[in-house]
What does this fold into?
Amino acid sequence: MRGIFQKFKEGLQKTQNKLVHEIKRIVTRSPKLEAADFEQLENLLLGADLGPVVTKQIIAAIKIAYETQGSAERDVIAVAKKEVERCFSNLNCELVVAAEKPTVVSVVGVNGTGKTTTTAKLARLLQVQNKTVMLAACDTFRAAAIEQLKLWGERLQVPVISGAHGSDPAAVAHDAVTAAAGRKCDYLLVDTAGRLHTKNNLMKELQKLHRVMGRKLHGAPHEVLLVLDATTGMNAMNQAREFHKAVPLTGLIVTKLDGTSKGGMIVPIHKELGFPVKFIGLGEKADDLQPFNPHQYAEALFGQD
It folds into this structure.
């Protein structure tokens, strides 16, 4: 568990450095917090992409703590950390388990978020948990995506169901569900084509893909996970809203958290849209995708006590 926390901490180092350094600067320069100090704290939290709703919640809690017990940088950081963690109370980050095998997980998102790599990393994570996995290469628009997933399949020794470049993604998905059910795999992970959330025809194609799987296996896909690139900050909110209109999302995977100082964006997306964050990406290696842990996330965001 310590190893996982270390990954959280290292992955969120950019965000944490900026937040903690600036909080200390604001809080320690005068013995009393003035209106201007609270305004700076608010701007700092907004700058880390914690969003207006959560930022107001944190500032209100800091004001109450300050009025009741005075203030120190440590207290301000502790209050902020507690409020962030509170946003995720009663959150279930576990993948669902379907009544009959396989549990089908559709991985969706816009172009460039790292869906194919993330799908493979999720396969690796499930393998570590002693689950049997199959991959479906349903991004048939890009020959490179099919080849990339096949390479991952070889590396992880996981079977990959694919079709020819340009073939019908729904047909590949149909065959993959049949194969995974036949082999009684625990999980079938479906890598879908990247699509802009504003392109109606591509969204309809994704709906068709899901319908075909649902007809083949009751309840499929059992999970629809949207991959979001943390470096896009609050733009990810619009992506999540639009994808959810087309295909009901069950959770989020947030990647590239190690490459941004805006690692707070997870909080408002969950708080305002209600989607659980299931996994976060903290680097390039195969085991750098980790289950989301709210406590460890808050600790890593604001540093340890």
In short: The longest strand covers residues 223-229. The beta strands are 103-108, 133-138, 160-162, 187-192, 223-229, 251-255, 277-281, 289-291. The CA atoms of residues 96 and 218 lie 14 Å apart.
